[in-house]
Amino acid sequence: MRAWTIDHSAPDHLALAEHPDPEPGPGQALIEVAAFSLNYGEAVGVVPHGENGTVPGWDAAGVVVRAAADGSGPAVGTRVVTLGPGGAWAELRAVDTDWIGTLPEGVDLGEASTLPVAAGSALRGLRRLGPILGRRVLVTGAGSGVGRYTLQLAARGGAHVIALTTDPAKEETLRALGAHEVVVADRGASGGAWLVERLSDGPVHGVIDMVGGAIRVAAYRTVAPGGTLIAMGHSSGAAETFPHGDFAGPLGHDRAITSFFLLHDGAGIGADLTWLAGLLASGGLDAGVGWRGPWTGGAEALAALAEGKVPGKAVLDLPSAT
């Protein structure tokens, strides 16, 4: 098969080359990949620092061409969306059946490929906040792939959703995705008080943070007692320095910060992906594809994603797309 492999001798750390076909284990199905989506973490972490010769990629959609030998998972011919720690950027992919979601008829495979990391992280992150019906939820990095799905799912769950972005041009889009309020952050903002001052209606029950750095520090200050900030990304690349007193009782007791990474919490994700695909099919979710092209443009798309030039998700289609 052909696949994108990590090649640190290449300018983009990638090469499109022949690679051995994957050999599925007993609990894995073999998928003919029709489309895959890219993630920021792959662009800035996996590809520059991965092992030479490996096939990267977390998200892919396609068709089952060999069912799992142990009888688990979907049958041959089933259209599916898949998640895994690697192997998505190839013509064929072997995937644990527990990490495979089935797709309704009519769902675009490229749009479906955006679901695993972005929508899966949004869904499971929001669950970690606990009940959100009637509660205030802040989403930082709201224009990212994960952020866009978080806005939609939080609004569907009955939350009052506040979107934080550094780009005022995104306000209309973020409101259309479910944000009840949009706060525009100054790119050079520092310290912890400025965001509290902009949330005139008081603290929030939970935060889903994709940015880190000064934004994470400010967002933590907005959390009410009993609330949680979930650190789900770190697109700023900046360190967090919390002012003295941020963890003291007078500022608000019983507040939590926790981290989340979907690939370490993937058990049963197949059922979640099936549910999310149903929402996508019914028009209940917007995939937010901001860049789409043939898979031969993988290096170009990855660079655009790393540089923040892709609004939403980047999708690559294979020529055998079903």
UniProtKB/TrEMBL annotation:
GO molecular function: oxidoreductase activity
Organism domain of life: Bacteria
Lineage, broadest ranks: Bacteria, Bacillati, Actinomycetota, Actinomycetes, Kitasatosporales
Pfam family, one: ADH_zinc_N
The name this protein goes by in its record: Alcohol dehydrogenase
Organism field: Streptomyces radicis
Domain Enoyl reductase (ER), first and last residues per copy: 9-316
Family annotation (InterPro entries): ADH-like_C, ADH-like_N, ER, GroES-like_sf, NAD(P)-bd_dom_sf, Zn-ADH-like_protein
